[in-house]
Design a protein that fits this description.
Largest sheet: 8 strands, mixed
Order of helices and strands: EEEHEEHEHHHHEHEHEEHHEE
Number of strands: 12
Number of helices: 10
Distance between the termini: 15 Å
Bound molecules: adenosine-5'-triphosphate, iron/sulfur cluster, magnesium ion
Strand order of the largest sheet: 6-7-8-3-9-10-12-11
Radius of gyration: 21 Å
Strand content: 15-25%
CATH superfamily: P-loop containing nucleotide triphosphate hydrolases
CATH topology: Rossmann fold
Shape: globular
Length: 330
């Protein structure tokens, strides 16, 4: 993959991932003792601009969560570099990592399993203040209550436990916890996928309002193109551990360049502004333990040619600010 979309330390870049790799060991099959390698993230370079949202979209298992966790150093990459605010944090550890983590937070898909059932909500929300010695006791309680009100709950919610709340309310608690330390970057990993459709828009709009107020950047992970379009300034489309297309959201949705992006968009009615072409995305995603040679997407691509099975295309600038990984685009 070319480093074409990489602009480390450029004025507007908050987070820059460069050529990041991550593989996990896994059993070949349920009945097999043979261990194989799952290539979850396979040479990814992306930038998250300050105060903006990079949407990361792709089918289940393509590596979105792994990449999101690497971005905030919850997971160490096997190779590649992570720069945050111009600083190389790839190998940071101990106190330096702990301090950097204050400025990087995560919101999970399932707020319930990520909220300690034995802690009162105000202590969940204020845990970071406690850990970093910012507030304790009465001050912590009052600050937590103000934050809970800001995310659409009541001050009284602080004295309750997570199980006393609905899914949407729990996600508000998860959001309050994530923003308590005024982070510069929040990874939101499918934050509304577990919620009723009626509640999703409220949570998304809350995230947008908070972004404006706090100036945070989001790495917003979703498999839902409508949600990605609603939230993102930039979009990266991922397939089997690699970025297939990357560019400004409005342009990508108006005129997708990569055959995979075109296939994904055509499956969602009324998403594009232009009359939509119908492209059938055939077959299942191949296993990340044995990704196809050449272009990862060639086994499902409606435009595939013999060269695609042999030569892996580079991610190249196909139009100003727009990048695609395809032999026949750009
Ligand atoms: N800890 C792990 N051990 C082994 N394999 C893992 C681990 N975490 C992820 N994987 C594998 O890595 C690949 C990418 O997983 P990941 O969770 O990053 O994908 P995803 O795009 O977030 O999927 P989803 O949309 O289902 O959440 C998958 O094949 C997954 O099974
Ligand atoms: S390189 Fe070939 S297989 Fe890959 S997306 Fe382009 S046309 Fe399809
Ligand atoms: Mg995931």
């Amino acid at each position: 993959m070319s480093g074409g979309i990489r602009r480390p330390d450029a004025g507007g870049t908050l987070l820059a991932l460069s050529n990041v790799y991550k593989a996990f060991p896994a059993r070949k099959s349920f009945f097999s003792a043979e261990v194989v390698s799952v290539r979850a993230v396979d040479g990814v370079s992306i930038d998250v601009p300050r105060g903006k949202t990079l949407g990361l979209v792709g089918e289940s298992g393509c590596g979105k969560t792994t990449l999101g966790r690497i971005a905030i150093r919850l997971l160490a990459p096997d190779a590649g570099t992570i720069r945050f605010e111009g600083l190389d944090i790839t190998h940071l550890s101990g106190e330096a990592l702990r301090l950097t983590r204050r400025r990087m937070q995560i919101i999970f898909q399932d707020p319930y399993s990520s909220l300690n059932p034995r802690m009162r909500v105000r202590d969940i929300v204020g845990e970071g203040w406690h850990v970093h010695g910012i507030a304790r006791g009465k001050e912590l309680r009052e600050r937590a209550e103000r934050l809970l009100v800001r995310v659409g709950l009541t001050a009284e919610a602080g004295g309750k436990y997570a199980h006393e709340f609905s899914g949407g309310q729990r996600q508000r608690i998860g959001i309050a916890r994530a923003i308590a330390l005024s982070p510069k970057l929040v990874v939101a990993d499918e934050p509304v996928s577990a919620l009723d459709v009626s509640v999703q828009a409220q949570i998304l709009n809350l995230l947008k309002d908070l972004q404006e107020e706090y100036g945070m950047a989001y790495l917003f992970v979703s498999h839902d193109l409508r949600v990605i379009r609603h939230m993102s300034d930039q979009v990266a489309v991922m397939y089997l551990g690699k970025i297939m297309e990357h560019g400004p959201s409005a342009e990508l949705f108006r005129e997708p360049l990569h055959p995979y992006t075109r296939s994904l968009l055509s499956a969602v009615p009324m998403l594009g502004n232009a009359p939509q072409e119908r492209i059938v995305l055939s077959g299942e995603i191949p296993s990340p333990t044995a990704p196809p040679p050449g272009c990862r997407f060639h086994t499902r691509c409606f435009m595939a040619q013999p060269v695609c099975a042999e030569v892996c295309p580079l991610l190249r600038e196909a139009a100003p600010g727009r990048f695609a990984s395809c032999h026949f685009v750009g």
